[in-house]
């Protein structure tokens, strides 16, 4: 951007602090522009440093951010800013800042600006890439600006071997201020291995005024990051893998190790744990996502029942200095198993198996650095805990006393130690309550029963298996204890009788089994029974050996065996007192709806059910909204992005995402057509989302692209679903999309794929040249292709081999749904194609159609033609060299049908028309033109190529000759001419040859000389326009001839024709002239010399013969011209008097003539005698007395002046021009000065102020008025009278003269008032006549409109809004109540005469 200086790649490295950069260049700083550059100060030492600036400001620059000392910890850096004020381009400076550390180190930062004397082309931008981590690809942009006003081409040259690519390498800069005056150069650096890159980019400019070489230095230091894990047991030994050994499920183990950064730069390390295939997916290709989709489906399947990951690492991201170490902790915590999956084991149970875990720890440096994969190994098993006995029966214990029973806890594992803790209750407690059991050992327990209340008691003493650090419970197993508290003691002999009586009273064997005290011999048998792991708690199975028990216990044992597998018996035994009561209520079952659900109702009812734990539905966006959505990159590119997308989404996060629409309906789609629909995904989260469409199972969506996007936080992404089905089908499929590589959801796609079909307006086309009415060499027909399907159809025409003369447009195209497209089929047979009938065919190929192709039959008819020329030879005779000679030939059709011909191109002959149709029996005129630049005899042919007929030829003969032009005078000597006087010499040019001649006369370099052609030297009967014309003028600097092409208008006055003379009037610049002379004609010109200053003239006048507008070599006639200008003896104030247009008065009327004065002054120191001759018009018949001069004679002393009055009295409507000669000192043979007098006569007339009187548009019954000014031009006194149209009903207008009807010399102009009013709508244009007292009539066009339409009266309503009242009468439409008002249009002339007030008074009165 403007204002950023170029940073030098030089840096200053010090053991304690480092500053980058140390040289700042501000040479490219524009005028009135302020720059701000950033520098970086870093503490590279091992101790904290205090950094300060010795001087933070100077005359031109200022250092910001270091006004006070700052503290930098080791490795930290501080960004400072250096600002430069606005300076002119010619200002240069060199300043520096000193940055100091507390250990005495100092670094100087140099700021410079060189003087720029002039801007041409500037290269802005730094190419210092700094430190990079390879392999990498980085880019920087520089700007090339052109400050000149000319385009500047440029080219880029790279100096040195560098992995650099510059785009573009060449181009052109536009002028300053244009859009192309600035060009951005993108410099891309691609580094693959560690190296130090140094080089230059040279921009070579080559322009109209710019030749310069601009240089920009490139610098970069490429390094690679290297990570190495160290063994925690031996810090100097590399770590190859981590083995956590065997743990209990639910237990955890932490291992700490270090990672060493062996590179020379700071690295950002990302750590993650996972399965090996998870990291293999990270290296997938962006184009081939089949492996990723399969892995995602596998992860999604495992995620439904997955436990927390067994391995975690912390920290997940950290920064490691160059050569530094990072300490990481890996935690192995296998998920705990449910308590139901394992129970208390007896001596006959098999020990549980070990579950191995094989994971990988990935350590990756940010950027393209080293990635370290560290294997993680571990195993887990459930605790092997045995409780003997598992059931403790204390029997009857009197209140206030206690009873104790022994128990054992055994560790059946031979590898892991068990740590346990036993929960205590109010009546039962155990000693010891916690402890540890070595592998294969057991520990005794003593359970004490101390009853607190009367009655039977049963509970569980939970034995918790703890983690290795005794902080959490990983396993729980119960010890079942029962007892009976009684007020008196019960001996053991009475226990059996009491139990039997209790069983009869309750009538529930299950309650007795849960609370009855078993006999000691039954309890001994029960302790050896293992607990079944597949049943619930308190469900026991007794072996057949218990059948041998005593008769007193048979009932109890049979009840236990009968109910050993029923959950209801166990629940009643445990919670007999809390069992639910049956209230006799019945479940209500409502009747189903009487009608079946439609497909739309079913989708609406089931839409809410599908939104549970999945993204929300999103409505379809419009085309404009979709165009505004950008496409994002295909996959993550940074480690931070990978870390975000590798984490599954929670339920709340999933429900906040919007994907839709859920049902994508393509509608009716053409077979093999490409139909597109869009879905959008909204990411409201604060992290990236990786969305992948699983199109691998849907070949119809193979053209969908992109199928993967990384959506930024808070962004909306779009996916374009492209359907291309090559089979006719009803397409209903589910499209799966994957979120973050592990969670899969689906969208429903629907489409009806149908074949395409097009209809034709005709299946046979006839092409007949005899029926065509054009002269073109082809015949064409229109064919309409209709599409009656609701989808677009692509088609293509295929012409057979025999249809090479036919063409069709368009050759291919697309017909929209329910629309049609015209096709233009043209037959262009070759010239040699014989007459008769020609057949061909073409087929219509429709994309996606089924069945045979449609075929069109083409039939062309070409009748035989026969035309010829009416004459055999066209003799043009003598033709001048270079002249365009024209002639005409007649072509006649003598055949039986219309004929079409084309003229064969010729090198010297041009024919018009070059192509035409000649009807049967008709004739056609053919214009033939020829122009030859070399004299020679021409004998050639005009050939006609006749369609379906024989060629016709006409011989053309001509003799091209070079015209011979002669100039009678040998030289032109003007002699001595006074300054201000004009002298003329005759120039006689003769063309004795038999052809016309054209020549140029060059006077462009001599403005004092010009040519004039007298009116009597040529006639309009011979020439269409003036033979003499100006072809170039020095005033315009033009060197190209521009001949006049318009014919001059002539007026005839008493048998004499007067034309506008070329070269007349005063010209301050010289001109070149072109003269055309007919064969054997003589042209007399006048060479006019007007002396303007005191000097001598001598030059050669060239007469160059022309051919085709160009001079012919060796055809130049030269004549010498000499003249000498002397000091003028008599000075005239004006030598040209122009009266313009004056009114012609009748001879009977006495009127004063028009006069103009001029002065004649003596310019010599002696007496001059003047004699003014008669005007030249006095010698013409009928023009005598038109111009008069007074006085005719005068005597002037030195410096005296005399005023001469010239009068003009025209007698006819014509133009007059005369020369008034002035003679000195009695020399009447030669005039000293000629005064030119011009004037034009005009008959008296009246002139109106406007061409047409347009009255304002008004409503009905409203008066409209306008004032038209009448101007007098030539009448003395005239009485005016207005004549209205005869049809007063259809043109109701009135005319009056507010100031009277007399006009004349006293009243130059007169107002005319036109009034119009109507009660019915009408609009008309008519003419009124103003007649004078002398019978002269002058018409005036008048237009008026009256209407009741608001649209027509819009202008009237806007201008009279304050005067209008809107009313409505009952049973009538609304109307306008107009106050008394009239419209009046006053012209500017009347207002200028101050009559506005009078007119307004007359109108309102």
From TrEMBL:
Localisation per UniProt entry: Cell projection, Cilium; Cytoplasm
Protein name (record): HYDIN/VesB/CFA65-like Ig-like domain-containing protein
First and last residue of the signal peptide: none
InterPro entries associated with the record: HYDIN_VesB_CFA65-like_Ig, Ig-like_fold
Region (Disordered): 333-352, 1034-1071
Transmembrane regions listed in the UniProt entry: none
One record GO biological process: cilium assembly
Organism, as annotated: Apatococcus lobatus
Biased composition regions of type Low complexity, renumbered to the chain: 1034-1043, 1056-1065
Domain HYDIN/VesB/CFA65-like Ig-like: 383-470, 869-958
Keyword Cytoplasm carried by entry: yes
Keyword Phosphoprotein: no
Entry keyword set: Cell projection, Cilium, Cytoplasm
GO CC terms: cilium; cytoplasm
PANTHER family hit by this protein: CILIA- AND FLAGELLA-ASSOCIATED PROTEIN 47
Superkingdom field: Eukaryota
Bias-annotated ranges (Polar residues): 333-345
